[in-house]
From TrEMBL:
One of its GO terms (cellular component) is nucleus. This is Replication factor C subunit 2. It comes from the Eukaryota. May be involved in DNA replication and thus regulate cell proliferation. GO terms for molecular function: ATP binding; ATP hydrolysis activity; DNA binding; DNA clamp loader activity. GO terms for biological process: DNA repair; DNA-templated DNA replication. It is found in: Nucleus. InterPro entries: AAA+_ATPase, ATPase_AAA_core, DNA_pol3_clamp-load_cplx_C, DNA_Rep/Repair_Clamp_Loader, P-loop_NTPase, Rep_factorC_C, RFC_lid. It holds the Pfam family AAA. Belongs to the activator 1 small subunits family. Residues 41-174 form the AAA+ ATPase domain. Heterotetramer of subunits RFC2, RFC3, RFC4 and RFC5 that can form a complex with RFC1.
Length: 341
């Protein structure tokens, strides 16, 4: 297969750390795994934490450091959420790969090449419970010749019998400083100009997800050129402009139903995703200084309920209107229940 042209290569891949020691802001994980790599004796591993914090990068770096480019394809099987990973795949593809024994592990090209293979299961928390249960026996049977690396956002969605067989590594959310340093490094390498306001906006809208931040940066660079503004980043990220969110908030504070209804109708007409609006409205409510804790609690409770309803397929206009009405009652100290004579 022909190599990807540099201009079309995703920056997420272009700037992905190639070695474990280069993974940012995960000092404890890096320290333990560096020691493990020195012995080349890896246990089954479970990497968990927020998205874009280096879990997949770390797993791939371990595999590349163990086998090198020549042996990688024959020794490592990668499966992510785009692959079918139901119980039939566990019983066939994964089991067949795990069952094949490998050589005694002589070093090749300066790489350790230990006598086992690695199966990387990205987004393992999306696997069905039946598939996870089927993996238990496979892990036990072929543990001498195969190691499993599970990667997930939510460790609670991994069944306990599977999690207990793995060494667990928690990946911390990336701080704004760490993200900013990495983004500025990429900007310098790509010849981009990003002012401090745009940098702060990029860190904010990506919510600690470095992968998302790099993707937004590349999209903005392709669409708007080498000088990137806050407005450019907001337009490529799908984030709702802050003045739209503030307008809805002020409409709720006004206590005027018609004003709130007009704002909600405008938001729906503009095609803004209501789930995104709820997320940004939550941030405004939580950070507001002149709202009591009781008012915040009442509004946040309704935001959570409406978000669940949207996931279940509820009408966007009705849910946002419901949120606006509850927020209006909370902010204007109206009674919770309205009584009609």
């Amino acid at each position: 297969m022909a190599p990807v042209a540099p201009s079309s290569q995703p920056w997420v891949e272009k700037y992905r750390p190639k070695q474990v020691k280069d993974v940012a802001h995960q000092d404890e994980v890096v320290r333990v795994l560096t020691n493990t790599l020195e012995t080349s004796n890896c246990p089954h591993m479970l990497f968990y934490g927020p998205p874009g914090t280096g879990k997949t990068t770390t797993a791939l770096a371990i595999a590349h450091q163990l086998y090198g480019p020549e042996m990688y394809k024959s020794r490592v099987l990668e499966l992510n959420a785009s692959d079918d990973r139901g119980i039939n795949v566990v019983r066939t593809k994964i089991k067949d790969f795990a069952a094949v024994a490998v050589g005694s592990g002589s070093r090749q090209g300066g790489y350790p090449c230990p006598p086992y293979k690695i199966i990387i299961l990205d987004e393992a928390d999306s696997m069905t419970e039946d598939a996870q249960n089927a993996l238990r026996r496979t892990m036990e049977t072929y543990s001498k010749v195969t190691r499993f690396f599970f990667i997930c956002n939510y460790i609670s969605r991994i069944i306990e019998p599977l999690a207990s067989r793995c060494a667990k590594f928690r990946f911390k959310p990336l701080s704004e400083e760490i993200m900013s340093n990495r983004i500025l490094h990429i900007c310098k390498a790509e010849g981009l100009t990003l002012d401090s306001e745009a940098l702060s906006t990029l860190s904010s809208i990506s919510q600690g997800d470095l992968r998302r931040a790099i993707t937004y940066l590349q999209s903005a660079a392709r669409l708007f050129g080498s000088t990137i503004s806050t407005k450019d980043l907001i337009s490529v990220s799908g984030v709702i402009p802050q003045d739209v969110v503030q307008s809805l908030f002020m409409a709720c504070k006004s206590g005027d139903f018609d004003v709130a209804d007009k704002e909600v109708s405008n938001i729906i007409a503009e095609g803004y995703p209501v789930s995104q609006m709820l997320s940004q409205l939550l941030e405004v409510i939580v950070n507001a200084d002149k709202i009591s804790d009781e008012q915040k609690a009442r509004i946040c409770k309704k935001l959570g309920e409406s978000d669940k309803c949207l996931i279940d397929g509820a009408d966007e206009y009705l849910q946002l209107m419901d949120v606006a009405c509850h927020a209006m009652r909370a902010l204007c100290n109206m009674p919770e229940e309205l009584h009609f004579s």
